[in-house]
Amino acid sequence: MRDVTSAPWNCDKGTIETSPDVLSGVSLPAAVIFEGSLAHNLEWMQRFATDHGARLAPHGKTTMTPALFQRQLDAGAWGITLATAPQCRAAFAHGVERLLMANQLVGEANMAIIAELIEAGADFYCVVDSVANVRHLGRYFAARGLRLQVLIELGVDGGRCGCRDQDEIMALAEMVDSEQALVLAGLEGYEGVVHGDNPEAGIRAYAWHLVEAAQALDHDGLIEVPAPLITASGSAWYDLIAEVFHEAHLGEHFVPVLRPGCYVVHDHGIYRLAQRGVLRRRPDLERGLEPALEVFAQVQSLPEPGLAVIALGKRDIGFDQLPQPLRRYREGGSADRVLSVAGWEVTKLMDQHAFVRLPEEASEAGNGEIRIGDIVAFGASHPCLTFDKWRHICLADERLNVIEVMTTCF
Amino acid sequence: MRDVTSAPWNCDKGTIETSPDVLSGVSLPAAVIFEGSLAHNLEWMQRFATDHGARLAPHGKTTMTPALFQRQLDAGAWGITLATAPQCRAAFAHGVERLLMANQLVGEANMAIIAELIEAGADFYCVVDSVANVRHLGRYFAARGLRLQVLIELGVDGGRCGCRDQDEIMALAEMVDSEQALVLAGLEGYEGVVHGDNPEAGIRAYAWHLVEAAQALDHDGLIEVPAPLITASGSAWYDLIAEVFHEAHLGEHFVPVLRPGCYVVHDHGIYRLAQRGVLRRRPDLERGLEPALEVFAQVQSLPEPGLAVIALGKRDIGFDQLPQPLRRYREGGSADRVLSVAGWEVTKLMDQHAFVRLPEEASEAGNGEIRIGDIVAFGASHPCLTFDKWRHICLADERLNVIEVMTTCF
Questions:
Q1: What's the CATH number for B9-33+289-407?
Q2: pTM over the 0.90 mark
């Protein structure tokens, strides 16, 4: 690798340098998190969990950003949830000691990663839902001379992973009990796969099913730890899960753990919609979460009236929904001078380009006339699939000064 | 960062270690390129270009994998095409000296990246399609005391970037001519945005339009280099572009440059379909490209009859089309023992999970019965959005021995 500059030649699609000017020196497109909204969200969700007698283990797969894990822990999180063994390894390497892998641990190469973490002192939990996996884990960790804490997963018919009924859970718990290397540490579920005409009622019923299953395991003496976990919740229905756990007085024996991930930066699409549902159900929850993540990109071409091509593509932003233009700035200008994007609509996203349909007035001469090089802030949905496009994320203040550059670990 | 193992604690979602066994030691999911098909594709496309009197500048944005850039150059490529300034920087840092940025260079932070590359000796080209951008580039590079080689982009009505007609091209060329810091080095186009009832005819017409525009620029003495470039082509219609450039005898003065990217690993979806079109038009082209990229993942849960949940998600594989199950292996088994995936269908892809609908016989007891931990090879479409999910890619031989681990630079 040749050395042609003092800047680091790391493998990174963006050059990010802090600067006193508005995103000046930042190669665009770039992902930007606003510090104020981030701090608000961190504090808001931690307080929500505490107020409901629950611990918070934010799902780290959303961001895979150790600097955010640290902020979540500093705000009071009990641990970090992850989805895969390599994610757990990355989090532990950056100082996260309690890891809740809300997923089955499959494959000996992945088991080897987790064995190393346990040997190094990690407080690790994963989930099981089958005899075959329990036997394999039991054999593997026994051979390594280690004990593995597992949670039984309760699923739903037509859903994703997880035991489908109480009988299956009890039989699997007996199987875990028979494996010397495995420690049954509680019950896990994910309400995001509950469907039906009345999801709210379905999710409440599912949460009560979790409670009953956990109590039955406990009643039969199958749980092998003094403070067993009961855990569920993504970022859309966490209020219902927290309420049921709270109403069931689970905190007296169990440790209820909530695991929302997207809350940390919220979004401009499906989670904003979901949040409206939370606040409708719970008007006592003030202010709510705030979208904190945006992707900034520049107008690259104005080839036809009514069409702007933006240097922003599927490589840069999630596309469960098309990105939403939020605001516009002139390159080199101030963050105070916000130009309009009224009537702008992203109509198509290619790998490296976005097509924006402009209203007629956008191309009229004048102060706010669109120009090549104009910087446009976009909102995205959902955050998980925006974070994973980036190796670095800018943390910025309200005036778009970059105050920290955070590294992701996908 | 704590040190708990001799293995590198890099930010990487997969542990990849070479091993004499079948993908043994590789944390799955993992992306795998088959060396034989890769070598075939490299040689095939290089020969295609040479046979048509054209140079090959493979689009590097597809893979952003310097080890593949090197193989493309070793096979005879004239340079590497890229889409953004940071991509150019990454390629140059890994030894690519001729960089064709088939995109507008917008934003001073991106101009600064390119200025550094030119200062370091890069042979760099980018495209222009507007007076505003030409003026900005002229001003910026003049201030840096550098000269920037630009190609005028020819677009199509209703397409993406690019001048829409000959008059616009000629006017823009005069503007480039008036900028001391800019050197007009040829013409660029991308036929992938040509639409209509008869795309084949439309693309041929577009290619001839490119030829005529290039010749007009040359005739008017507006091109400032002795061997100007004329360049187009993605991985779907490269045969038509190459034929028109060949028929026009452009090689006598111009340097015709083809820029397909996806060909290097081909795919199991849209490009396989496109390739059938190429071979139908050109039966003389023997054998054709071969899909070389697969993503391997394991069965994680079998929660209901007829349903397998695979540890493979949107974080791991492109999803323009749902992944296609290709083959199955038993974990720890041999690559020779291929198990059936007949009738398997991916019905849904979440961030970290794939849902597979199984035919009845898949869960019947027997030799090929599906088991938790079974390793499934998936084909994807398209490759660009599969590569960008990975920081490392395994290069494997036919027996699924990992022979090289390649790093990506997204």
A1: 2.40.37.20
A2: yes
